[in-house]
Design goal:
The structure holds two protein chains of two kinds. Chain A has 14 helices and 13 strands. Chain A is an alpha/beta fold. Chain A has two domains: 180 residues, D-Maltodextrin-Binding Protein, domain 2; 147 residues, 3-Layer(aba) Sandwich (D-Maltodextrin-Binding Protein, domain 2), CATH 3.40.190.10. Chain B is mostly helical. Chain B folds into three domains: 443 residues, no CATH class; 101 residues, no CATH class; 72 residues. In chain B, helix 5 packs across helix 6 and helix 9 packs across helix 10. The radius of gyration of chain B is 25 Å and the shape is globular. The chains are: A alpha/beta, B mainly alpha. At the A-B interface, helix 2, strand 2, helix 3, strand 6 and strand 7 of A face helix 3, helix 17 and helix 22 of B.
Chain lengths: 357, 676
Amino acid sequence: MTIKTLATTAAVLLAATSVSADVDLSGETVEWVIPFSETGGSAKWANFFAPLLSEQLPGNPTVVVKFMPGAGSTKGANWFQEQEHDEGTLLFGTSGSTQFPFLLGDPRVRYEYSDWVPVMASGTGGVAYLNPEDGAKFDGSANNLQDVDFIYGSQGATRLDLVPLLAWEMLGMNVEPVFGIKGRGDGRLMFERGEANIDYQTSSAYLGASADLVADGRAVAMMTWGALDEDGNIVRDPTFPDIPTFKEVCEATEGCETSGEAWDAWKAFFIAGFPVQKIAFLPAGTPDDVRDAYVAAFEAVRSADGFAERAAQQVGKYPVFVGPGAARATVAGTTVSDEAKAFVTNWLQEAYGVSLK
Amino acid sequence: MDVLATALPALGDAWALILQPVVLGYLILGVVMGLAVGVFPGLGGIAGLSLLLPFMFGMEPVLGLALMIGMVAVVPTSDTFASVLMGIPGSSASQATVLDGFPLAKKGQAARALSAAFTSSLFGGLMGALFLTVFILVARPLVLAFGLPEMLMITVLGLSMVAVLAGRVALKGLAAAGLGLLIGTIGEADAGGSLRMASYDIPYLTDGLKLVIVGLGIFAVPEIVSLLRQDRSIAKDAKLGAGWSEGVRDWFANKWLSLRCSLIGVVVGVIPGLGGSVVDWIAYGHAVQTTRDKSNFGKGEIRGVIGPESSNNAKEGGGLVPTLLFGIPGSGSMAIFIGAIALLGSGDIEVGPAMLRDNLDITYSIVWLLALANVVGTLLCIAASGGIAKLTTIRFTYLAPFLFMLISFAAFQSGQNFEDILALFVIGLIGIFLRRFDWSRPAFLIGFVLSNPVEKFSNQAFQIASFRFRKSFEEGMDYLFSPIVIVLIIVTVVSVVLGIRQAKTIMAEGDVQSGSKRAPMIFLLVIIAYIVAALINASMIPDYNLTDKIVPLVVGGISLACCLIMLVQMMVRPETDVIFADKEIFGEDADAPYGLWSTLGWFAALIVGTWFVGFILALIGFMISFLRVRAGASWSKTLILTACGVALMCVMAGALNRDFPPGLLQGAVDLPWPLN
């Protein structure tokens, strides 16, 4: 980041949002609270952005990441709901696992996304893959995979795994989830041991480990969940342009429809879980000048030299939304239609006996 | 030979990277920081690494690695201080060390126990590194050979150590382990999300109880309260018997035990998903089984220290294998480590399968930095052990308020809830009664620690096995009874048979006399009541979530059966029978000048005070009144000690950026740090 680009960006943003010069965080400590443990993807995400944010915020405050795990992030989100604005020294990060219980009406959820002030959002993608034996039967459609018994190591049907499980079901595949694993890495290990024969990873994890399996012929890439274009259509994931999307596979498979209530429900939850996966919020009641200072800082982070390359390695090659973009993304990620919600609730009950009462 | 051809140059490169003065400087800096953090129970590698993370961004890779590895490597070494000196298990890696280490300290041989432990740690760490250098190249197939049935069997092997540690009445030990398992199932089930003995109205319980809290409650609280009641120093007669050189000689005399236990540590550490929780128990069990005269175990047997300590540092090395090869962290601190490596340099070192191919030199640097950090850390610890052992000669009444302060703070760090401290008190109460009535506390803790793995692995292995059986009978049998599983079953059976035979001679609580029938019977009835409640609660989980209820039902049923048999025995046997063991009848506790409840009342007062005015204000009030009233200290001494305690808390929390528990006062008024 040269001083010139920083100055230009700041100037543009000053003009655009008329930041008041009062916001000065020098000497302060900004706490970025992550409602997960130190070990997860959200921790990696926040730890990646924290030092960059510190450089760009007015007064260069120390940005520390704090962890408040519990109840799959519900505890931390409920806590954040109670927090009030205090000089802009509190930031909160959510992920798909915070969004899904909110969308599904989990009884523990006491938080309301629309109360919070989004300043930055970023997304990811996901890739599903098969073992070589069954992968040989995959021809761009799931037509030859109907009679195979698939086993999948899952973190729970109400979590992000909802998206792959529903997708495979729509393809008519018989996938039995083995619940209770703690992270997707454990799922991949189960796959490598041959205990599971189907798996999926989010983009960064896929690039880090599973891509090698595919290259060595020990796994066959099946499909990505895709990415959203400007108009909200599902297109090929820019990180994996050679792998077909679920939409393409579905179109090629007999009995799988890319319209109707199942498709709408899947798409709604895909949007909530992947393209808008992680969002940084300021607490309810944050004044506009503080919000604008954060938006400007994240804008400067995102447009810095070399940011794209580092981000691609750390958090994946996906857009980072700030300001109004983040607000739009938040709305997209935290609203699903009542029909989609009803469909998924009913499906969870029927397929897995999960009741969200 | 192919392997060797790539490994040797990489090994050379690694040494060239490590042996630069600046790298060694960073390593020592990391080691010193790790020691400072690790000495405090409850704060381990996670707290320390989180502190370092902000500096890792863009740092020269080898320097960053030196700093981080220095910090991570010494935590299982330095937490030995708390285990040996105070009877506080500093982390899951040093639970078994408490069993014999603390009795040694009570005999005035703290320095001997510490230096034997450190020497074993050093040896274990070096063995681990040596083994890894060769092993890491061929480890992949072995790691993949450990599927769910194999992991389940290792967990069962860990559980079988209960047989050795069950105490004089085998049924009691079994029931204690069962109770530990049941308490471990509290909260939301991993598989189906059903609640066990919890409610959404008390969100704290839905996450289950943390190991730190249960470890502190079961081991530390009862010992602190007991010593405080007796109003003496930890070392009887306030004398230090043996010096640190004796500990080193002890290690040398038991070097083969140390070697075997380090190998156990590396091999079990390599298996992802098991972590450190079973390693030290398996090593302890091995030490017991290979010792001819078993009568000293639990009373201060040096082999009981050397075994687990040799294994726990070796385990750190083993734990690197899944971390580096598969990108799967074996522990919380390894997870942060993985994240931090990605921040180093230009960010192109990615932990995972590509690590060996692309960054073999970095891999070897990590392995040998770990070994070097062990050497540096051990030397520092041994040098310090003689001085720190003097703590055991101080009148305990002066130590107690600091310990109450430390364990409350440590408990709070595990979940940042006020309920953490409350849970510590309740578990502490259970620990006090387990100790009083001679129910095996190690058995309880083993049950608790292994509760989650037992449930997870048995459910998942069962599910996958049933798919295999559906395909064909042979395929199912092949899956369940692999050669590794069969070997493990044999080892387990042998260790249970041997263990039961030996259990009677190993009295972890000393020779506890029996006397009246009433108190032990009431305690048994309370436990039966809890087990029945847990059983009813589990049976109410709907059947489609069978995976969530099967383990509580089976374990609860077995424990209940044990308890009912004991109840019958209690009715028919005379009150001098060993089943009525009660520490309040005869011995140190019975003769103590202070009562249990008045002593416990002080701890309760600190908690109640925290609820109202927050931790720091409550601590000031607690320290002043405790030192004045209970210890009878002069005003000047009281104030100086209080200031030291509060300052220690503030420096530690400030440096690690940790919060204190707030109270009602803080909810009403805004106060500056550290009062908030």
